[in-house]
Design goal:
This is Secreted protein. The protein is of the alpha+beta class. 30% of the residues lie in helices and 29% in strands.
């Protein structure tokens, strides 16, 4: 009888030990998952901090870029104040009353203490209704001065994250693990 009680007690102690070990394993896994989430959040915050240092604004007649404006070219000043270059930048210009959109593509924007001006565009389109006061007598559409354009940025950071800064300055992560665009091939 004493042997039976000892055996039952041994099984209970072994079961309690197994339960404690299983509970400790679950707690360790939860802690590891929490640490991994914290590390991912920290990395995203670091990347976001770098992306926050990239901005653009429409070139204004009152600024130092008058030559671009006097030629009638749409332009934007872009500043990359981060510590790393950004890639595959798209500067999107919009003039909503004229239903006009244009895009200027820049392959790489290195870090810089000051802004760099990018003028002109690679693609443009007029789509949608145009406000009457923007239609000239000859039927052409009058665009707003460059300084009144809405400017949006899209770019890829060094870690392959694609960002968008809208015309109100809001920064949003669009995608992760984005491959850089291939280099353009020059005609021979």
């Amino acid at each position: 009888m004493l042997g039976l009680v000892a055996a039952i007690l041994a099984v209970v102690v072994a079961g309690a030990g197994a339960y404690l070990a299983w509970s400790a394993l679950r707690a360790t896994r939860r802690a590891a998952a929490s640490v991994a989430e914290l590390v991912a959040a920290y990395r995203l915050a670091e990347d976001r901090a770098d992306a926050e240092r990239v901005c653009a604004w429409a070139v204004s007649e009152r600024e130092t870029f008058e030559k671009i404006i006097t030629r009638g070219v749409v332009g934007a000043a872009v500043r990359n104040a981060s510590q790393a270059p950004v890639y595959d930048m798209e500067i999107v210009f919009r003039d909503p009353p004229a239903a006009w959109t244009a895009i200027r593509r820049v392959r790489i924007v290195p870090p810089s203490d000051g802004p760099e001006v990018f003028a002109g565009f690679d693609h443009e389109e007029t789509s949608g209704p145009v406000e009457r006061d923007r239609i000239n007598e000859d039927g052409t559409i009058r665009l707003a001065p460059s300084a009144d354009m809405h400017v949006e940025l899209r770019f890829t950071d060094l870690r392959g994250r694609r960002w968008r800064r809208d015309d109100t300055g809001q920064l949003n992560l669009l995608a992760e693990n984005v491959a850089r665009a291939p280099a353009p091939v020059e005609a021979a």
